[in-house]
Amino acid sequence: MKKLTKLLALVMLPLLFSGCGGQRHNDDGPRRLELFFLGHASKHHDSELLAGILAQEYFPDGINITYSVDPEDLTRKDLKRYDGLILYANHDSISPAQEKALLDYVASGKGFIPLHSASYCFRNSPEVVALTGGQFKHHGGGTFSAEVIRPDHPAMEGVTAFETEWDETYVHDHIADDIVVLMERMDSAGREPYTWVKEYGKGRVFYTAFGHDERTFRNLGFLQLIKSGIRWAVGDEAVAKMDAYTVAQPQYEEGRMPNYERRDPPPRYQLPLSAEESQTLIQVPVGFKLELFASEPDIRKPIAMEWDEQGRLWIVETVDYPNTVRNDKSVGDDRITICEDTDGDGKADKFTVFAEGLNIPTSFTFANGGIIVAQAPEFLFLKDTDGDDKADVREVLINGWGTFDTHAGPSHLQYGLDNKIWGTVGYSGFEGTIGGKPFKFGAGVYQFAPGAEHFEFLGSTTNNTWGLGFSEEFDVFISTANNEHSDFFAIPARYYEKANLHERGIEKIDGHYGMHVLTKELRQVDVHGGFTAAAGHALYTARAFPEEYWNRVAFIAEPTGRLVHRHVLEPVGAGFKEKGDGWNMVASSDNWFGPVAAKVGPDGAVWILDWYNFVIQHNPTPDGFDNGEGNAYIDPLRDNTRGRIYRLVHEDAKRYTPVKLNPDRPGTLVDALANDNMFWRLTAQRLLVEAGDTEVAADLYDLIRDESLDEVNTNGPAVHAIWTLHGLGLLDGHDQESLAVVAGALKHPAAGVRRAAVQTLPINHEGVVQQLLAAGVTRDPDLRVRLAAFLALSDAAPSAEVGRAVFDAAQQSENTEDKWISHALLIARAAHRQAIAGEHLREIGRPAHSDADGSLEDHIVAGAADQTITIKAVIGEMKYDITHFTARAGQTLKIIFDNPDHMQHNMLVLKPGSLERVGAAADVLAQKPNGVEMQYIPSTSDVLFSTPLVNPEGRYELILTVPDTPGDYPYVCTFPGHWRIMHGVMQVVQ
């Protein structure tokens, strides 16, 4: 009988948790409650902080919160999908369209929850003031309580009077006649309505004046008040659906684990959940659903994915990661598996092992009829030659990738629009020979031809690099660890090298520090609360999601935060910036959920690999733990048996019709170049280039001549057609018709097409320079086209004609004030130096935005010193090798700071007793977008002396006069999250 009961329980478990994926937003069944939170971009009345606290507090109960700071979102078409709207902000006015949308939304039967400062929002609208029920007039402040005068009202369920630590004492006017007062604040002036409700049309309004700052935000009485108010405001039907929705309740137990954040009490170990249970703890945007494609026991530990030309998903499974490193190159336990859905139900039901016996492969991409696999120390080429979907060819393409740290090796191989293989690498770097040429480099981005020819290191990054993504117009983006979740790659390193410029062609562009996590048990090594393991940077390059995503939103996985970030890109001059903070695309409170990759699949959905592991952290190795072969600390809590794959699907997406590509029928490939999903366009381009059939040229011409634009002003088919011609060798100068067609594209309405033409035309072929200049690309309205033009011209043979164009461009402030254009002009000037008159050379100055982390040799201070000490960063430990030394008061001291570590560090010498103050200031600075520009050095008198950020393998000599007053002077690294561990003491004596 016990066995039967247990069997029934196992059978029923998936049924209890069904609906968390495909039925997630089905209004006819159980579901989570959806709230839209409108805040503002201000730390006074910190709406971002409040939204995060409420999200973490209410998520386990089945409440989702979506955050925005833009009042224009009130007019969103999908606002009707939300059950209620929270307003906590200081927006002074509201537009007529926004006003109508808000009033109609509430009147339709939705909940409106204005909090605190919301009663001073939108004061230009008497109707909105009346909707809120009153308007803030003035306030004092202090510790106080409010009396519950309607304890029987449903909005007061579970609410008792509570006392604030400190809050603003609001006084209101314009109080509406139809409010029902639930709580009153009392003082010497009398009784003030402090919490009230009202009805508006079919909707309900709940307001409270409580909530100035974190002292109230975290008050348990306040949290219960808001929760009860929400439940009343959204209405009984929505609450009933939420209450009927089964949310998994994770179980915790004590466990030995690192406590990098010094939590008190220390973090607990969460027991794993089934895939069905885990899905109930994952939030996705309104209008989307999360569908499980595969999970254990069919797959384990997926770390990378790609799709073949049949649309089948291939994944890398690595159970050897992180410490089972086969130094003797013996057979490993990892594999590459093909996952297929053969019956069309959205779940994989066929699993074919393409290759096994691998050891910590980290990435792969399709090329030349097989796949190229990154498996340090080698890149392998694997191919199936007999059609059984199993590799029977195994060749080494490249050897020399570092293996001493398994989370710092090569990753993110992918086929680029330029028909090269692109990839990233962390600080394990590379040292070896490729194509007979020696290479040695650390963290950065690189490319090579599919046969491993023409290898080029494109640029250095500041630390471990795990993300790479291309836009539909071939803009390149990178994500790295440690407070740098988005970089824009603008100029390859070779251009700076040939111009002898100490600049870097990669720029940090992220617009915010914080992650927005749903778990209260967040565990991180450093950059606490921020991005410390950003992986992937895939843009949304299909058309199955709403237009706001198209070629604009990137998906950055952050496994330590248990989320996938929604990264909104905004063009700025010749580069990009992150537009505000797009919050999350996917987030979970399951402390095993570990998204390591998110990218657009053949169906236009975003596919997510869930590493599903309680332990994500790698190093430094904490006290009491041993280090493993992969330079990761050994922890028995690491899992190697689980893993999940999800598809994030928009509910309004048109039904996906599989695309059928046949390399033996070039017409199918040309047709696919016009597909609205870049996956199919790029796959078709690759197959056409690999086939080498130039007979398709005429069809490619037709695509290039098509001057239509889509809704986001792109023409993807024309871009791919140009690069396909390039890959077929038709733009090397021998085919005049191809050259003419692409030269004509210099006038195409789509900037991305114009730039592709600039980048592919053979610059030193007769007449090409003149065609570029005649087309006006150096004056193009899109500065990205100008950037491509100046880089192309820098590759041209020196000429007075080009020199004049460069000189003329340097007279335009919009060029010299743009970082990347100014760099390109300097590069072009160097190439055409002899062709430009001497007086003109003086007119083209240094770039307006010199990179702070350029050549550190420029910063080294020379001079004699009474005492010299060399202090080094300890590799992989976030520590100085010397943590105490003595210096004599008044003497000249030279501190030589060497950084052999794999990430940036600085060194600040502080006033005695100021370590905690400076550390707190460093935490604040880390959250500011300009923190890196300030070298993460807080602006405080507590800092006596400082170095800038020192790059890996860099060096800085700091000469200072030792203070006259004896004492213990701390020195510390203020790179985000480091100060708690990386510090020492300079003891000053007479």
Structure description:
With 990 residues, the chain is an alpha+beta fold. It has an 8-stranded mixed sheet with strand order 2-1-3-4-10-9-8-6. Strands 13, 33, 34, 35, 36 and 37 form a 6-stranded antiparallel sheet that branches. β35 and β36 (575-578) form a beta hairpin. Residues 1-25, 838-843 and 845-863 have low confidence and may be disordered.
Set out the fold topology.
Blueprint: H1 2-16, E1 33-38, H2 47-58, E2 63-68, E3 84-87, H3 96-107, E4 111-114, H4 126-132, E5 135-142, E6 146-148, E7 167-173, E8 180-187, E9 190-200, E10 203-208, H5 214-217, H6 220-234, H7 236-244, E11 252-253, E12 269-270, H8 275-279, E13 282-283, E14 288-295, E15 302-307, E16 313-317, E17 334-340, E18 350-358, E19 363-367, E20 370-375, E21 378-383, E22 393-399, E23 410-415, E24 421-425, E25 430-434, E26 437-441, E27 444-448, E28 456-460, E29 465-470, E30 476-480, E31 487-489, H9 493-499, E32 506-508, E33 535-539, E34 553-558, E35 563-572, E36 575-578, E37 584-588, E38 595-600, E39 606-610, E40 644-650, H10 666-672, H11 678-691, H12 697-705, H13 716-727, H14 736-744, H15 751-760, H16 768-775, H17 783-794, H18 800-810, H19 813-816, H20 819-831, H21 838-841, E41 867-874, E42 879-880, E43 884-888, E44 892-899, E45 908-910, H22 915-926, E46 943-946, E47 954-961, E48 967-972, E49 983-989
Parallel strand pairs: 1-2, 1-3, 3-4, 4-10, 41-44, 43-49
Antiparallel strand pairs: 5-7, 6-8, 8-9, 9-10, 11-12, 13-37, 14-40, 15-16, 16-17, 17-18, 19-20, 20-21, 21-22, 23-24, 24-27, 25-26, 27-28, 29-30, 30-31, 31-32, 33-34, 34-35, 35-36, 35-37, 38-39, 39-40, 41-42, 44-47, 45-46, 45-48, 48-49
